[in-house]
Amino acid sequence: MMMAQSLFKCLKIRNPESEIHVLASPWTQDLLRQMPEVNQIINMPLGHGVFALKERYQLGKSLRNAGYEQAILLPNSFKSALIPFFAKIPLRTGWRGEMRYGLINDYRLLNKKNYPLMVQRYLALAFEKNAPPLTEFLFPELVVDLSEKNHLLEKFSLDLNKPVLVICPGAEYGPSKRWPEHYYAEVAAEKIRQGWQVWLMGSAKDKQVTDSLINFLSEDQKPFVHNLAGATSLLQAIQLMALSQAVVTNDSGLMHIAAALKLPLVVVYGSTSPEHTPPLTHQIQIVTKDFDCSPCFERECPKIHNNCMKELFPDTVISALNQLLSKSTLIASRL
């Protein structure tokens, strides 16, 4: 969804009078509400992988009188093309995907070498067939309303008396993408020694990881760490992250949010690669280490050792973060 915003921006530039309505699952809608390019959100009641032909037909039928001129399909699945077809939207644009002839009447054949980035594949759908791939484009950028920040800080017993480092140590995809908690704890400890506080963010599934991270800290360091994993909604996580000064994370969804908030960002890559879905930001340090077996893109390390993460030591990440913050301060002082 974050990478889709580059498409929304492109569509608005090409046709400023256009209205963009996005059919989206409930859990992504907080992201869309922070995107000024989106005029309306249509609720997608069906979960990922659910076919539900009758429900798709009914939803498509309900959209027939909305006056849509074009539907742009970002997923490549067969079932994702059904609703625009049932809605009788005249121009239905997307990559061919799962043999969607007829359902899509403006289909494209993907040459992955020409479109290495997922965001480039999205952007291509804003243009006519055979248009050259974009190499320069607008990055996602969330516009966050912080008018209620004091209420939010009070709700989670937080303050801004010290600069905030956000750490996102979880990874929905699987353990192979997670940098060890005790390494994250060393980063947290170093920033606490420098006078910072640390906010841990993630979903409820990451709570065990964040709890483990805190257990590696000394008793005098723990008061400066706030465990927000599983405690916030996605919108609250976005708003709180926007109040921070920097983020350190695995390759995760929160990584893309931090990038769109234009925060100094350090990302630890091991089993995955930034070559297809990188965080779209200029304020970034990517920390990774080459191994013959990486990137493997597996949920769990096939070789058991998980060396692509274990061999990335905390001092490397701390150094990357300090360099990034130094550069960020220099830019701010020049402004």
The overall number of domains is 2
Number of strands: 11
Rg over CA atoms, rounded to whole Å, is: 21 Å
H-E string = HEHEHEHEEHHEHEHEHEHEEHH
Question: Which helices and strands occur, and which strands form pairs?
Answer:
Elements: H1 4-14, E1 21-24, H2 29-32, E2 40-43, H3 53-62, E3 70-72, H4 82-86, E4 91-95, E5 106-108, H5 118-124, H6 149-155, E6 164-168, H7 181-193, E7 197-200, H8 207-215, E8 225-227, H9 234-241, E9 246-250, H10 253-260, E10 265-268, E11 284-287, H11 307-310, H12 314-334
Parallel strand pairs: 1-2, 3-4, 4-5, 6-7, 6-9, 7-8, 9-10, 10-11
Could you explain how this protein is built, in words?
The chain is globular and about 65 Å long. Helix 1 (4-14) runs parallel beside helix 5 and helix 7 packs across helix 8. Strands 8-7-6-9-10-11 form a six-stranded parallel sheet, sandwiched between helices. It has a three-stranded parallel sheet with strand order 3-4-5, with no helix packed on it. Strands 1-2 form a two-stranded parallel ribbon. The protein is built from twelve helices and eleven strands. Helix 10 links the parallel strand 9 (246-250) and strand 10 (265-268). It folds into two domains: 4-124, 3-Layer(aba) Sandwich (Rossmann fold); 152-334, Glycogen Phosphorylase B (Rossmann fold, 3-Layer(aba) Sandwich), CATH 3.40.50.2000. It has helices at residues 4-14, 29-32, 53-62, 82-86, 118-124, 149-155, 181-193, 207-215, 234-241, 253-260, 307-310, 314-334; strands spanning 21-24, 40-43, 70-72, 91-95, 106-108, 164-168, 197-200, 225-227, 246-250, 265-268, 284-287. It is of the alpha/beta class and 335 residues long.
